[in-house]
Amino acid sequence: MARIAFRGRGVPVIDVAPLAGAWPAAGDDARRRACIEAIADACARVGFFHALGHGVDERVQARTLRAASDFFALPAERKERIANARSYCFRGYVRQGLENTAGVPDEREQIEFGREEPPVDPAAGAQHYERLRGPNQWPEERDVPGFREAISDFARRMTTLGEQLTRAICAGLGRAGAYGVEVGGDDASDARRLERLFDGAHLQWKVCKYPLLGGAGDDARASPSGVGSHADSGFLTLLVQDCVGGLQAQLDDGGWVDVAPVPGSVVVNMGEMLQLASAGRAVGTLFLQPAA
């Protein structure tokens, strides 16, 4: 059986190691099926889980968090050199309070990245949505040594994990044939149609810093949350937390539960596109990020 535990009032911790390797698996089908079923249950019940055994080494996570900390420690004018207002595809730095959720300023600063792609030429007849593709903006190496390497390596590893989790979620929610696993359904034509949705999928990575809540320092704010209550619009969100925490998810009874940091884990939460694609079998849970 899959290793599964529960934190607080309902955020499970799932060992996803059985998802690694080729699909279909040889010799470990029972372990993989149990893992898929545990993920499907988390998708349907709370829309959040902690993933362990995911293959993204804790040293890689730590290097990424250090690189992020080094960037956010830069003076404001040096961070603004890569402001996303300079990018037609919205890549780059966003200062604290510039974005808002439900009309309330977001109390966080962040850098946004995507796949590293060549610029899109509007004169070539590109569709409007294709202008979300393009080159990233990176801080100068002398400002944050090793930043680009650390973030790019982390993004590659998380992309692989995301692909594994997507296969498992599709299988667990009844779309199995394209992935060689049969859990909850065997409609191969539906599975192939779903799989094609992910050809050239749009990926977005964010490196975020939230202010202290009621603490000292220039970035301390009185706001009760870093970002207000919302659901992510995409298919799947993977999140690495630091040791401070602050993330909360809303349960179906309307109460809020802490998604407390689990050392080495990756938090997985379902987005609105997954809820739509699964006809509501997976829930795109509301969540918020109180300031630390």
UniProtKB/TrEMBL annotation:
Q: Where is the Isopenicillin N synthase-like Fe(2+) 2OG dioxygenase domain positioned along the sequence?
A: 221-282
Q: Where is the Non-haem dioxygenase N-terminal domain?
A: 11-141
Please indicate which superkingdom the organism of origin belongs to: Eukaryota
Instruction: Please give the SUPFAM superfamilies that the UniProt record associates with this protein.
Output: Clavaminate synthase-like (SSF51197)
User: One matching Pfam family, short form?
Assistant: 2OG-FeII_Oxy
Which PANTHER family does the protein's record reference? 2-OXOGLUTARATE (2OG) AND FE(II)-DEPENDENT OXYGENASE SUPERFAMILY PROTEIN-RELATED
Q: What is this protein called?
A: Fe2OG dioxygenase domain-containing protein
**Source organism per UniProt:** Diacronema lutheri (Unicellular marine alga)
Specify the taxonomic lineage: Eukaryota, Haptista, Haptophyta, Pavlovophyceae, Pavlovales
